[in-house]
From TrEMBL:
This is Uncharacterized protein.
Length: 69
């Protein structure tokens, strides 16, 4: 099950530097990009969280990666 949009795991995923070596390649690439974009424009963090949630909704194979956040 995918956590709700207000779950703190999304903020951690986007704003932390936590190692994602155990995540799928697709998740690593997406989260890396979202982190870079958020660093350059912190006001977009909610937009990036929404993008990450949509990814997990669409690609259920990656749902196990949510636990890494």
């Amino acid at each position: 099950m995918i956590p709700g949009p207000s779950d703190p795991c999304w903020q951690r995923a986007i704003c932390s530097e936590k190692d994602l070596s155990a995540a799928s390649l697709a998740t690593k690439i997406l989260v890396s990009r979202l982190r870079q974009e958020t660093k350059s424009n912190p006001s977009k963090v909610n937009e990036k969280i929404a993008e990450l949630r949509k990814y997990f909704e669409k690609y259920t194979f990656a749902a196990k990666d949510i636990a890494l956040f």
